[in-house]
Amino acid sequence: MVEFSMANPKSKPGSESKSHSRNVLEHFAGLNLSIPPILSLAITTNSDSQTLVFIGTVAGDVISLSLNPNSGLSLHLRVNIIGKPVRSIHVVSHIKKLIVLSDGFIYLLDLNSLEPVRKLSLLKNVNVVCKRYFSRNYSLNNGIIIGNEDGCFFAVGVGKKLVLVELVLSGSPVILKEIQGDFTDGIMCISWVDESVIVGTRSAYYLYSYASGQCGVIFSLPDPSVMLPRMKLLAKECKVMLMVDNVGVIVDSEGQPVGGSLVFGEVSETMGEIGAYVVVVRSGNLELYHKKSGYCVQRVSFVGEVGSPCLVADEEDGRGKLVAVAAGSKVMCYMKVPSEEQIKDLLRKKNFREAISLVEELQNEGEMTRETLSLVHAQVGFLLLFDLRFEEAVDHFLLSETMEPSELFPFIMRDPNRWSLLVPRNRYWGLHPPPSLLEKVVDDGLTGIQRAIFLRKAGVETAVDNEFLLNPPSRADLLESAVKNMTRFLEASRHKDLTPSVREGVDTLLMYLYRALNRVDDMERLASSENSCIVEELESLLSESGHLRTLAFLYASKGMSSKSLSIWRVLARNYSSSHLKDSHGTNHVQDTTKDISFDQETAVMEASKILEASSDQELVLQHLGWIADINQLLAVQVLVSDKRTDPLPPDEVIAAIDPRKVEILLRYLQWLIEDQDSDDTRFHTTYALLLSKSALDANEKEHSTQNSEGVNQKEINISDRGNNSIFDTHNRERLQIFLQSSDLYDPDEVLDLVERSELWLEKAILYRKLGQETLVLQILALKLEDCEAAEQYCAEIGRPDAYMQLLEMYLEPMNGKEPMFKAAVRLLHNHGEMLDPLQVLERLSPDMPLQLASETILRMLRARLHHHRQGQIVHNLSRALDIDASLARFEERSRHVLINDDSVCDSCHARLGTKLFAMYPDDTIVCYKCFRRQGESTSVSGRDFKRDILYKPGWLVTR
């Protein structure tokens, strides 16, 4: 791979040449006849191997010439009509006839034999004739198949009269219409397209509608005495070009101008059409004008007889491949140069824009495919590339749909390489040198510029742009422009559907180019995203250039986690070392520390991303330590990640965690217990012990009177950062919640640790787990003085003696503590009904103020009596309800039913008579047979009395 070295470009190469000249026509065949001067000319193509050229002379001869691709132009047939000048010849190929105008009459000749000659005597004094042309849209709308009509339509000018004629299949003319218009100056030229007949006189151009019979002026001629009307039917588009002096105005079949006007160099003698061009001939010169752009694209000179008129004829079917030119007695045929050769000629002349326009035009006309357009764009791109116009070259590369990215690989990496065989060979026209490294392209280009400068001083014109000659670019500028634009092309190519091998080349070489431009962000973005880079091609490049971050990203994207982690570990340590070094150095430590800290955090963050998804136990535990040294939160995320498919074994993880990193171990155990629902008693016990130790340390620090000014500030910061970064709640709060919620830890072990501490609530929870009710009540009531918690615990015990025991603790606290009379009164007030009044009176201390206890004791006694009486009432009500229910049941069983002769079974509808029958609670009656079938719990209506119990108003006890 080439090492690029460059700076920003300062100039842009010059624009392309503006010349529009190219070879559209080439001389194909010619013949110098020993005949009178030629007065009329026509041409038609019979087949791919033969074209006929018809000429009419001033002596009345009609001569047929055969044009063969191999033998050229030769005399075919010759007849003489009446010895009068032949004014015009029209080929009617679909009926194999020629329409010849001579001496005011129209003659019909056979197309192939020129015999027999037939004179149409119906038409006299004819001075102009033309065939009718049908446009494609008109033919489709009217069901006409062009070239296969039964007859032929043509228009003739007879003095000041326009006559429309149909020539039927028998050869007889039928006059369709005779129009006496405002043709006072005489008809000099006619064109008939679809329903419109355009007539030219000395003073104006007219439009006559065959459908409506209306005639109107299109426009008047400015000076009838000088300019003669001339028109040319453009058969390809079925439009008509009307001449005004040297200006051609193109109109449609409605007489409306379309497009722009064509301005010729001088007034032409005659005009023809070939493809997208108009051919004009005058004074021994043939000129070719593009219809749309109006440019004169070619000028051809030929030698004719002095004083003889020049004529041009084209293929009337609009094929646009051949034109014939006659001057005197000489006939020349010009064939259209193949489109591909025209494009090549434009490219050689560096008319790139015009070459592309030509291809687009040919594509629109169906003469070239979209693939050819893509090929030309690529060809133009290569030519511009070797002209050192890299931005324009890549623009054309991007417009080519078929150009493959591998075609630019040889410009970036020296052959041979792993992608050499992917480069397509011999696809273009050989207009540019073979691919070579960008350095060589630039050097060769600069050498060419220097040579051109020398030749220009010597007066020799060169093809090098003036911009380069006036302001020669530097090598660095050109090289940077080349690399930037190559990068642009490869970036766009990444979005295409490429084969795996080509995609590998694109991404790998794109990394080379990014490195040459020192675009570090783009390098890292490519390496960290999904890519097809070949690691073996980039390892040494990135490592030697110091782009270790990019290499780490690349390793990670390719699944080479171990190598990536090793780089991140090295980078994290280097950042840390640099930070420590700078912290003792210069005065601007603050900004440097901020940057280095950010880089270090980035390194550990990227490493943690890899480890979070890795199920490799050995790899995770190998790198856990240095990650924990920098960021404990990320270390925890690595351990508890849900991205990995196989969980890490907890025992190995716990063993690998540094015992000094208590917070990490705590958070991991919490994750195992709360998120993973681990029921391992070891983890629960270890978690409880670690929380207890943390709570003890925090409690000791909180109550410590040690002066904090002597404490190492760095250790405090690290400790605080560890505590705050992992847990949102205080350790003691988490300890209390866990001790209450878990039943899987060993309370004895935890109690041994906290028994001599001031963690009274925690000890109460542990004693409760061990069933030490008295100790729990003592802690809650006496140590914590939490009356509500103590009463709640008694409620959980559910025995009256627990309340009495609590009352005794309030009245006779230990360790010389004063009696808690208010707490005792609160207990009597809230739960007095649970206490025996006599026992309460026995336990009351004589020191208790009477005003505190009297009202409470009195209310307790009253409540006791009230509860007793209320119980009696409930008991008596229950007995009454039972008696009422028994009575209702007896009444229901004692019901009488009257059966007569008309009574029937509700199930089978048989008369009951003296049969046994049964009645259900819903008052339905069935015979005994149906009763046995139905059963006693389901009635005829389908109601199941065991599931859907029936109640009657008389059964409800309302007393």
Automatic annotation (TrEMBL):
<dbReference type="InterPro" id="IPR055358">
    <property type="entry name" value="CHCR"/>
</dbReference>
<feature type="domain" description="CNH">
    <location>
        <begin position="37"/>
        <end position="315"/>
    </location>
</feature>
<dbReference type="Pfam" id="PF00637">
    <property type="entry name" value="Clathrin"/>
</dbReference>
<protein>
    <recommendedName>
        <fullName>CNH domain-containing protein</fullName>
    </recommendedName>
</protein>
<dbReference type="Pfam" id="PF10366">
    <property type="entry name" value="Vps39_1"/>
</dbReference>
<feature type="region of interest" description="Disordered">
    <location>
        <begin position="1"/>
        <end position="20"/>
    </location>
</feature>
<dbReference type="InterPro" id="IPR036322">
    <property type="entry name" value="WD40_repeat_dom_sf"/>
</dbReference>
<dbReference type="InterPro" id="IPR000547">
    <property type="entry name" value="Clathrin_H-chain/VPS_repeat"/>
</dbReference>
<dbReference type="InterPro" id="IPR001180">
    <property type="entry name" value="CNH_dom"/>
</dbReference>
<dbReference type="Pfam" id="PF00780">
    <property type="entry name" value="CNH"/>
</dbReference>
<dbReference type="Pfam" id="PF10367">
    <property type="entry name" value="zf-Vps39_C"/>
</dbReference>
<dbReference type="InterPro" id="IPR032914">
    <property type="entry name" value="Vam6/VPS39/TRAP1"/>
</dbReference>
<feature type="repeat" description="CHCR">
    <location>
        <begin position="638"/>
        <end position="819"/>
    </location>
</feature>
<dbReference type="GO" id="GO:0006886">
    <property type="term" value="P:intracellular protein transport"/>
</dbReference>
<dbReference type="GO" id="GO:0034058">
    <property type="term" value="P:endosomal vesicle fusion"/>
</dbReference>
<dbReference type="GO" id="GO:0016020">
    <property type="term" value="C:membrane"/>
</dbReference>
<dbReference type="InterPro" id="IPR019453">
    <property type="entry name" value="VPS39/TGFA1_Znf"/>
</dbReference>
<dbReference type="GO" id="GO:0006914">
    <property type="term" value="P:autophagy"/>
</dbReference>
<dbReference type="GO" id="GO:0005737">
    <property type="term" value="C:cytoplasm"/>
</dbReference>
<dbReference type="InterPro" id="IPR019452">
    <property type="entry name" value="VPS39/TGF_beta_rcpt-assoc_1"/>
</dbReference>
